[in-house]
Automatic annotation (TrEMBL):
Signal peptide: none annotated. Residues 50-171 form the BAH domain. It comes from the Eukaryota. The lineage of its organism: Eukaryota, Viridiplantae, Streptophyta, Embryophyta, Tracheophyta. Coiled coil: none annotated. This is BAH domain-containing protein. GO terms for molecular function: chromatin binding. InterPro entries: BAH_dom, BAH_sf.
């Protein structure tokens, strides 16, 4: 992720356009402490007339000091307010191929402008850096990449590890258990939205029936 990413963690005092303030929606769902400070956790918040919830994917305005930088893309994982000082989001980052630095020093080759890499890199940003929601499709098979005209949005086929600077397919077997569960859920949600989950379940059922028939023949 570009170095400018880390400037997004706090709102500069000299940025006049950040005048709208995010407000929590609903009751506090959890209370935690950070030193002597109380942190309230919420399931949703309102900003500029739009409601945002846990799990939403959003575009974030980068603090680029005048440079032309594409918006960041992130998933909202936690919504907090510490000592009533404003909504802060704990977000999980997507990398654009040009921002992911591989070990050989060459930029990743994207399948197009839609491609992003998922990651398990987390960071905190003010809620007011949100531009708007966006759509991200998690696709584990090449033939499931949706047509842009019918299904607009970004495409994720791989996970990027910024520490090892390596890419992993969503179907990789080496993820930690909680990572694998999260990836499977995100892929399944995409398959449901594309209307092909029935095909997957039908194939699974067919395999189970073939296995059962084979066992019956061998008994």
């Amino acid at each position: 992720m570009p170095n400018e990413l880390h400037h997004a963690r706090s709102i500069p005092d000299d940025v006049p356009h950040l005048v709208k303030v995010a407000k929590p929606i609903g009751d506090v769902v959890k209370i935690s402490t950070e030193g002597t400070h109380q942190k309230n956790h919420y399931n949703a918040f309102d900003f500029d007339g739009s409601t945002y919830e846990l799990g939403d994917t959003v575009l974030l305005a980068p603090y680029s000091q005048g440079k032309m930088v594409k918006p960041y893309v992130a998933m909202i994982k936690d919504i907090t307010d510490t000592d009533n000082k404003g909504i802060v989001l704990n977000t999980q980052w997507f990398y654009r191929p040009e921002d992911a630095a591989p070990r050989n020093g060459k930029n990743m080759e994207p399948i197009g402008a839609r491609e992003l890499f998922y990651s398990f890199h987390m960071d905190e940003v003010p809620a007011e850096t949100i531009i708007h929601k966006c759509i991200v499709h998690f696709v584990s098979a090449q033939n499931h990449i949706p047509a842009r005209k019918e299904y607009p949005g970004f495409i994720v086929r791989k996970v990027y590890d910024p520490h090892s600077k390596r890419l992993f397919k969503l179907t990789n077997n080496g993820f930690l258990h909680y990572m694998q569960q999260e990836i499977d859920l995100l892929v399944r949600k995409t398959m449901c939205s594309l209307g092909i989950i029935h095909d997957i379940e039908s194939r699974d059922d067919a395999v189970d029936q073939e296995d059962q028939s084979s066992r019956n023949r061998n008994e």
